[in-house]
Specification:
By secondary structure, the protein is mostly helical. The protein has helices at about 10-40, 45-75, 75-100, 105-135. It is about 85% helix and about 0% strand. The longest helix has about 30 residues, at about 10-40. It is elongated and about 60 Å long. This is TMM80 protein.
């Protein structure tokens, strides 16, 4: 009786890298929001939503990564599916910061493009892992 390991090493590595990259993304984006609020005439009523979206993303990232790690390592589709759902939320918030925050600098575009591409790759790997666990 041979047992097979179904968890995905590429997914595990990408989740780890995403965790580190997200810390960088969060701090860089926060620093840019502070910079923009000092250099540009940032309307007070628009500063709060931009900061709120960034912090919401940060709060969402913790369970997103935790469930991704847990679901992959325990070969359980439910936590991985929840992580995939939270990734959709993170993508929406990231697109907000890419397109609709008050001031978008080229650095915002670059940071968000990298983040969105890792989310896309990670989502594909999650779907493949879930398919392997279910079959």
């Amino acid at each position: 009786n041979k047992s097979f390991q179904l968890s995905s090493l590429p997914l595990q590595i990408l989740l780890y890298v995403n965790g580190i990259y997200y810390i960088f993304y969060f701090l860089a984006t926060l620093a840019m929001i502070i910079y923009k609020s000092q250099v540009f005439s940032y309307p007070d009523d628009l500063l709060a939503p931009d900061v709120t979206v960034l912090f919401l993303m940060g709060i969402l990232e913790v369970p997103r990564l935790y469930l991704g790690f847990k679901g992959n390592l325990t070969e359980a589709e439910a936590p991985l599916g929840l992580s995939l759902g939270l990734t959709v939320g993170s993508v929406v918030l990231s697109v907000y910061l890419l397109l609709w925050q008050t001031y978008v600098l080229w650095a915002d575009v670059l940071l968000s493009a990298v983040l969105l591409s890792t989310y896309g790759l990670e989502s594909g790997l999650k779907v493949m892992a879930i398919a392997a666990f279910v079959s």
